[in-house]
Amino acid sequence: MRTIDKRAKVTRRNFLKSGAAVAGVTAIAGGATVTVDPNGAWAMTTQHLKPETMVTLVKMARDLYPHDRLGDAYYAKAVEAYDGKAGADATLKQLLEQGVSDLNTASQAKYAMPYAAVNEEGDRVAVLRTMETTPFFQKVRGDMVVALYNQPAVWAKFGYEGSSAEHGGYLHRGFDDIDWLKDA
């Protein structure tokens, strides 16, 4: 008779996949935490905000400004600055942590799961609509429009060639060439 090993096979890939899907975070030394996207598309180091808060903020940023041609890494980069700002501003930290908690509470009430775990974009947007008038929502919405669209890597995704002021303006550089706008 053949003996079968029934112990769970733990590989690096399975560990990271299941660990990230459940928690979305991995702790490291020095008081910092590495926040990892459950799908493995991005990672960031956080020190002041909870990793779950950062994961939720990335998902919220994507829902506020959805672009299929942009990966989650661009949204993570836009949200990443909140961690440093929260370390210097306790009021901002409280606003973000409490806002994400309220967002998760609203999501739990409607879908019985935290906001970032809701699969359908339309369902997440429905939860966001219930919070449109809150200072938390207004802060994130206002900050993300700048943080997301001020990334030169994002400009390239939309075909925007960038500022022309340092090159003498658009007059002699194709001022009427707006092909990039057609695809947006």
UniProtKB/TrEMBL annotation:
PROSITE patterns: TAT. Keywords: Signal. It comes from the Bacteria. Residues 1-23 form the signal peptide. It holds the Pfam family TAT_signal. NCBIfam families: TAT_signal_seq. This is Twin-arginine translocation pathway signal. It comes from Skermanella aerolata.
